[in-house]
Amino acid sequence: MDKNLTYGVFVMPKINYELKQQIIKEHFNGTGSTTLAKKYKVSNSVILRWINRIKNENFGMVTSENRHRIEYSIEFKIKVLSYKNSHNCTLSELCNKFKIHSESTIYFWQRQFDELGIIGLSRKRGNPKMNKNKVTEQPKLSKDDELKQLKEENLMLRIQNEYLKKLKALDQKQTKKK
């Protein structure tokens, strides 16, 4: 049995800026993207995306130094999504036109907009900031009050249980008649 089988899985290492430059340079010197993908163990589609960004004069989007977290305004997100819907563009075309780093960013915006509307586009990712005003706990009940509350809760649960039993019996009775 061959131990070198990959079963279609393509593991991509992190690519530094110098290696990206090397791959792009080799591509422009005539080496095919498929050959480069095998040589450097990088997905062929990733290499083609880099090449397209260079051809569209978005070379800054290829560099790893430019991968800082960018905050896009709601207006910008709406503009991109409306352009996508009116022009039937692919995600990669939108990335090139609006200089957005990743196609998954636009996909995420579209999904959020479809599920939650404009509110979905305004939601910030990550954990919300802590509230400065701590919520105070409810005052502790005295033993007598707590006992009284528990007895009331117990009574309500017994009533609910009896109701469900009678409902079940009634349902069984009706199904027997049919």
UniProtKB/TrEMBL annotation:
Pfam families: HTH_28. Keywords: Plasmid. Residues 76-129 form the Insertion element IS150 protein InsJ-like helix-turn-helix domain. Belongs to the IS150/IS1296 orfA family. This is Insertion element IS150 protein InsJ-like helix-turn-helix domain-containing protein.
